[in-house]
Predict the structure of Cilia and flagella associated protein 61.
Amino acid sequence: MRTLTSPSGQEEAVTVRRSESADAQGIDSLITPSAQAVFGRVNVIHLLEKANLAVTLANEKDDIVAHASFFDHPLGDLVDPAHWEPFLQKHFRAEKCAEIFCSVKCVCLVSACQNLDFCIITVPMLSPEFLLLQNFLRVPHRITSLLPYELYIFPRTGLRWVILDGVPLQAFVAQVDGQVVGILIMRDEQDVEYIRAHYNIENFIYFSHHRYEEHAQIRHFVLNPSFQHFSKHLFKEVLRLAHKSCLYHRMYPPDCSQENSCVHHLDFVLNCAVPVRPRRQIIYPLEELGINAPSRRITEDQAPFAVSLISRKLTMEPKVSVNARIVVVGASDTGLSFLEVLCFCPHLRFNNLTLISTHGFPSDCNHEDVGFLSTSHAYSSRDLAQLPLHSYVSVMTGKMVGINRMSKYVRVSGGEKVPYDHLILCTGLQYQVPCPTGVDVSQPVTNSQLPAQSTHRRYTGPVPSNLFTLNDLHDCMAAHRWLCANFVEQEDNAVVYGNSIDVFTTVETLLSLGVQGHRIHLVLTPPEPAASCLSDPDVEKAVVTAMSKAEVQVHRNCTLAQMNHGEKHPDPLTSVSFSNDAEPLHLQCGVFFNLSNKGVDYDAFKSINNSFLVFDSRLVINASFHTSDEAICGAGPLTKYSRSYYTDEWSQANFNSKEVGQELAAMLLPLFDPTQEPADEPPPGADRLVPLYKQAKIQGGKLPGGFNYLHVSKPRAANLTEPPLQDRRIVTGRVETGNYFCLHLDCYELVETLTCLSLKPLPVYNYLSLYGKHQQLLGQLLTRYNQGLIHDLYR
């Protein structure tokens, strides 16, 4: 905010800021008839889109009082933008026109660096970036470096001018004193419509003001690190010389790395570009639509990729570098959504994001449909490939085994120490290796006779080689490979143990691999109070019928009592015994799938407990995600709210984990984002309330019988029994015929729950958009259903 004084002495406070598209009307009102008579009619939106720098002055009422747009070439058809320098030299006697200018502050370094090769600056990691550092090269440090400083260097060669030479083949060379210091090769973007349809590029540009031939794709880019601070000027000049306005960089996942362009260093591009979010896609029934289907250029199936954009108006857009070390433990839905929000902040550049994950980044595994586990539909393999997490986040493969709060580092299973300024714990919950109760099953014993703590002990012995506890894609792929190599062609039994939707998806996976149903024993543990594996009784009935038809043996209310008749080291596992409400159950076993006893990983528990963070069956947090240490936050099912809130029935496990991660990021961003206004003071007592979230809880998977299952519901408190939803229930199809679709509307006629059970693949993202919609938005759905006009919700 500055105060300006007019020639008449009138004072007015004004703010200088970058121009926005919303300013167009105010800017247009500043153009006087006399100016229009001289310069002609000005398309303000087009001016803002193509300007390298546009600045607006606004008063306290946000009325626009002045505007200026700056270009790197003369406007109009007076001269080709790529050849304006000779034009100026010819007509205006300009002796020399430099195409790229150094920052004024760099000139101040000339005398200091005359006899030196480098100027070096170290700054504390948590200190905000000052303007001078934007001309220095940041040296990335190793993940395990414990130094609390960032290193910046400026080479003496960086004080020289850079000159670009363009050639018709869209190849550009940057030279210094006749030596090549950088190369950029690009081609016309052939998939402009595909990118526009699949990515939100219109968050940054007005698409209609950019001709198709003005879009280009970076194919190769190499720049000497000494000239990193010239990167944005280099891109600006390339756009001018090539007559382009938008430059895209695609980043493919590791399994499609052959598609990636050669870019070195990638940071040089990311520092100048903005990451573009993917759009949620409508899944079209192309065969049914026929000639009415959208263009194949939009619907064609391409290898997924992340996109970054450099446009003319973004070349001068400053970014705030954030050097704070933010370490996320756990590649859960919560952790990934937290990182996603940070990576997609267009005006912030987080330099030190680290993910600690047991098996590395989730998309590093081949996401073929290996089955076994249900899904939350938060991140598919395609979703992950369209996010730039690989480019922005360093990954440390291993488990957290310790936290040193005094020195602020996390100890990883490989022995490495990962330092942090902000630590985010979101490991979620995992199935634990079951510990047999050890009761003598030769005598009649029931579950009610078991000691109270016998079912909650931790297993400490060696894990049998044919016992698989499935928690993530890595575990599922290992089990899949083992089954194909050692079990499918044999005659032994497969025992599936647990009581969740995952036991049913695992049974279906075994059946799909060719394991005969009579070899599969589904052993269900005693259910939790008010809990149900499958929320719809009709769906559960269909699944039970399908398993019976496939001859799968189902045993209910069983608790593991012995492995290999009580052997101390049961490897391989050949027999298992269970107690139940009647006679003990004895089964021969060729492979054992454990999907029981979900809880906090023991190494995570030890790390939390030994660092004296409050742990009460879960990591205890307050309403703003903080633990008892201000530098450590927790989120997701790992956590619970402090008992001082008196809300034991609500925890973050009740909510959509992706939404929780987004809210955690929103809570932390004000610490790093200088553009955010200070938050209003909360009303008295608000800090004693826990936040409630609105997005749906989602569950899906493939169930026995070949059924594709999807269940979407509003968040509900744990251990509270709600009355069944009978009114405003819309049902079409039948579970027996594999076309069952059920919608529940709440008292406001909003879609509160939907359940799909189909023998055909489900367009999941289409159906997810129904949640929370009023039935009137769905074409008076309830009225037409009551009139008998709705026969199939799938069509």
Summary: The mean pLDDT is 87. The radius of gyration is 31 Å. The domain at 162-317 is CATH 3.40.630 (Aminopeptidase). The chain is about 20% helix and 25% strand.
